[in-house]
Structure formats: structure tokens, C-alpha cells
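SEQUENCE-TO-STRUCTURE ENTRY
===========================
What this section holds: a protein sequence and its matching fold, both as plain text.
Question of interest: how does this chain fold, as expressed in C-alpha cells?
***
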Amino acid sequence: MTVTQTTAAGVEDTGQTAGPATGSADPCSAPPPRHPRPDGQDGYTISEVAALTGLTAHTLRWYERIGLMAHVDRSHTGQRRYTNRDLDWLDLVGKLRLTGMPVADMVRYAELVRAGEATYGERYQLLQATRRDVLARIAELQDTLAVLDRKIGFYADAGRAYETERTR
């Protein structure tokens, strides 16, 4: 899902950079999200969001408590009502978690988004640092994969040699 978060200044932050001079979205980015309900009819309960995201209700409440989620609207009975925008935000948070970004940095990013356009530079720096960390982890995993491939090749050759010797 693409993240769209309205900032305090009322400006949307889609989490994407504009494409070429046309101002269109990056053609390599993910397609627009498909929400279960159209905007305006998107009052999801916490259990529905848990089912849609794979997060637990406890985690969703914790995200709200620590400031990772903006205020979640409530029904007249006090039940949380999440929107498609909240689902998009949770999708971004899930991606940030996969990068290994510390929770404190995710909360800081959420605070910066809510603070508005004046924080673009700081958000950029935070995401660039996370990107560098991800690239370093990818390089480590590629090295690890190369070791595994060598070991697998060794054992495949050794197994064939063993079978050849055994059948003689």
C-alpha cells in the first residue's frame, strides 16, 4: 500500500518522490492500494485491522500509545475506527519494521510527518540512514548466501561421489 499521511499543515505525504517532470508517481513504485472499503465508508474496527494487517490488537493499541499512530478516531461507543489512511500508514510502518529501523526512529519519523513540511529535510536524512543500513544488511546476506551456495555445492558433489563409490 502507498502511505498517505496528512500533516499538521494539511499537506499529504505519500512517502513517494515525484517522477519525471510530469509530476507523476514513480513508475517503479507499487500500485495504489486496494482497500476493502472505499474512502468515506472505511470505519474499520480494531479486530478488522488486526485481520487485515496481521498485527495484534495489543500491538495496534501500543502503536497508538507510543505515538507511532496518529490519534485514531472513535465511534460514539468509544470503539476505535481506523480509516484507509490508517491502513496505509500501518503498511509503511510494517515496511520500516522490515528494514530493522528502531521503534524510536519510527516514532520520530511519525512525529516529523505530523509536524509538516518543515521537517522534509530531517525525514529525508532519517530515511537515507535507514536505506544505508538496509544496503549493508543486503550485502551481508549476499555474502552469507555465497557461503551457503559453496557449502551446498560441496555437499552435492560429495554426495554424488559417495553414491558413485557405493554402487561400484
In short: The chain is about 55% helix and 5% strand. Residues 1-25 have pLDDT under 50 and may be disordered. Residues 125 and 131 are 10 Å apart (CA to CA). The beta strands are 5-6, 12-13, 73-74, 80-81.
